[in-house]
UniProtKB/TrEMBL annotation:
<dbReference type="Pfam" id="PF05504">
    <property type="entry name" value="Spore_GerAC"/>
</dbReference>
<keyword id="KW-0472">Membrane</keyword>
<keyword id="KW-0732">Signal</keyword>
<dbReference type="InterPro" id="IPR057336">
    <property type="entry name" value="GerAC_N"/>
</dbReference>
<dbReference type="GO" id="GO:0009847">
    <property type="term" value="P:spore germination"/>
</dbReference>
<feature type="domain" description="Spore germination GerAC-like C-terminal">
    <location>
        <begin position="219"/>
        <end position="384"/>
    </location>
</feature>
<keyword id="KW-0564">Palmitate</keyword>
<keyword id="KW-0449">Lipoprotein</keyword>
<dbReference type="InterPro" id="IPR046953">
    <property type="entry name" value="Spore_GerAC-like_C"/>
</dbReference>
<protein>
    <submittedName>
        <fullName>Uncharacterized protein</fullName>
    </submittedName>
</protein>
<keyword id="KW-0309">Germination</keyword>
<feature type="domain" description="Spore germination protein N-terminal">
    <location>
        <begin position="31"/>
        <end position="204"/>
    </location>
</feature>
<comment type="similarity">
    <text>Belongs to the GerABKC lipoprotein family.</text>
</comment>
<dbReference type="Pfam" id="PF25198">
    <property type="entry name" value="Spore_GerAC_N"/>
</dbReference>
<dbReference type="InterPro" id="IPR038501">
    <property type="entry name" value="Spore_GerAC_C_sf"/>
</dbReference>
<dbReference type="GO" id="GO:0016020">
    <property type="term" value="C:membrane"/>
</dbReference>
<dbReference type="InterPro" id="IPR008844">
    <property type="entry name" value="Spore_GerAC-like"/>
</dbReference>
Amino acid sequence: MRKNKSITVLIQLGKRLLPLAALLLLTGCWDSDEVNSLAIVTSAGVDRTKDGAIELILEIVAPQQLSGTGQSSGLKGGKGTTIVRYAIGDTAADAKGRLQWKLSRTIYWGQLQVLIVGEALARDGFLEQLDYLVRVNEIRLRVMPFVARGKVRDFFDSPFLLEQTKAGFLQSEAARVFHKPLTISRLIQRMSSDEDAAILPFINVREGRANKGGEPYIKGYAVFNRGRMVGTLTGNSFLAAKWVTNQLKNDVETVNVGNESPAQVTYTTLSAKSRLIPIRKNGEWQMNIRIESEINMIQNTSRLPMADPQNARLLEAAAAEHIREVVTQTVRDTQHMHADIFAFGEAIKRRNPHEWSRLEPQWNRFYPEMDFRVEASVKLRRIGMNSIPLGRQHKEHTKP
């Protein structure tokens, strides 16, 4: 009898508590911030001033109004409207604190997409300032870092006519130029590796032309050694670095085929793959760089019809020789910088960890003198719609 009475009491108590539990579920997160109270950051820049201080520049999505009403919609990027704010402090964290004083909303890093480092700070070393950003829980490790030529503020003052935000512009630019854009996570891994060398996309910025046209663009790579920028790779060196790191994407190159004039053929790369193969030769380590690619001819100014297999082989040989030359020169340039950006040491470590333990202490001296060899093979896959060059006279290709 007592047992039935207890069950009845529990059932009645449960009926009374059920509505209260439902209300608790509808209350939401009690400690969350409303969107209307946040200053959402999409891109950030850090630079060093002339007096040695740190400048922090943030691109913030601007608040917009709901159409047809007078109520605020919070921070919304519907039209891509953003505002840029900056502050100067002793460190990046100090500058962030000073910038927060100037804003009525709380700085929110959760939507940060790109980080731009000024050239002066990059050459002086920016890992100490990066330390603050990687400690912020809101920041994702897939943020893409860049180095800007000159001052970061010049980049934020430059136009970006084809994109709505600076972050959107750099993301589109990186997707266009690279097969797989670099992230902060990968940068930290490279900076923390045994070689302690890395590369970052180098942005060309025209100083003092904020309102005179000329969008910034990715000009090449900034080369880092021991946390400091020691040089750049541009032009053919930029392409060569992309060859070795498997970052080539729709790049256009031109080579000379044959001895007659004109003899230039322009092509784009359909696919490319490179491998690092360390070997021991005469008791010393040497690196073989093997590059395989397939190309698509897009213009033929020579008098050679590429539908002829013999002429196609001439083009393939010329393209392969071009790759060997530019890659060889670029690797030598990195050796002069004492920057193992292609991870030769990592390849040796994978091949023979025991030998690497002996080589590692003297790697900074061994790498600049390390012997290497570049092997390249090219296959022509497409020649376009015309088998005969348009520049060739009709009577030339009608002869038997």
